[in-house]
Specification:
Length: 262
């Protein structure tokens, strides 16, 4: 959904197909993420206000300029591949969640933006997708939902994206978290424990995008120099096990860094 010619047909309905960030100042975000993650950028054919971040020539993520009056928070948002955006939107509404935008035409596909029952923002995309998947190549290492009731969230997303019926997507339930796998590889985690026991019970639910770097400490130092911050000792510093740093970009967008395996 970056507008690139590097496309393939949707092969795994309900799997993440892209991540995107909307910011107040596109130039500031471009400079920040270029410095911290070493990204290059090109324009997107989908929208004049969208950039496609690339690493080693491969698409990684989208960053767009926020329209005045819309989306006041800077939030990294995962998009999920679907075969019918209208059916997905209906499922979201039927389960008490909100479709904030769309579905509407964009490029050669259709897109929608929604919030789950606890307010975590996510998108869905009907159409061609990139050869992009969490944990592969230069894509984010993993995408993680922090929520108050992980099992309620798993039921919601499982029904919206039909995980139980998908041939490629598998869901594994653990004591206090849920793992979503594609071809045996973890692409999503839902964490937080039961509604009464969750250590995140007072957090605003959100999706966190985790990027892999060669040197976490160097990336953290670059982020500080480029106007980023490290959240103080509060629940917002939560990151899934194995991930070492949670940062905020100059516009307040949270993301997580992990060390690349040698």
């Amino acid at each position: 959904m970056s507008g690139s010619d590097e496309r393939r047909n949707v092969s795994a309905e309900g799997a993440p197909c892209w991540v995107n960030l909307m910011v107040a100042d596109l130039a500031v975000a471009r400079a920040f993420y270029g410095e911290v993650l070493g990204w290059s950028f090109r324009s997107s054919s989908l929208d004049d206000h969208l950039l496609v971040a690339t690493a080693g020539g491969h698409p990684v993520a989208g960053i767009g300029a926020r329209r005045p009056g819309l989306a006041p928070a800077s939030v990294w948002t995962p998009y999920f591949a679907v075969r019918d955006a209208d059916v997905t939107a209906a499922r979201i509404r039927e389960r008490g969640a909100t479709v904030a935008v769309g579905p509407m035409a964009m490029g050669d596909g259709r897109v929608g933006l929604a919030a789950d029952r606890d307010g975590a923002t996510f998108g869905f995309w009907e159409g061609y997708t990139l050869a992009w998947s969490p944990g592969e190549g230069r894509a984010p290492a993993r995408i993680d939902l922090q929520t108050r009731d992980v099992f309620d969230a798993a039921v919601f997303y499982g029904e919206v994206f039909d995980w139980a019926e998908g041939e490629d997507v598998d869901v594994a339930y653990r004591k206090d978290h849920v793992l979503v796998q594609l071809g045996g590889r973890v692409i999503l985690s839902l964490r937080g424990g039961g509604v009464q026991t969750s250590p995140l019970a007072h957090l605003r639910p959100r999706w966190l995008v985790n990027f892999v770097v060669d040197d976490v400490e160097r990336a953290v130092a670059a982020a500080m120099s480029a106007g980023g911050t490290r959240p103080g000792p509060s629940p917002a510093t939560w990151a899934p096990p194995g991930f070492s740093r949670t940062l905020q970009d100059p516009d307040g967008g949270l993301f997580t860094l992990s060390q690349r395996d040698v």
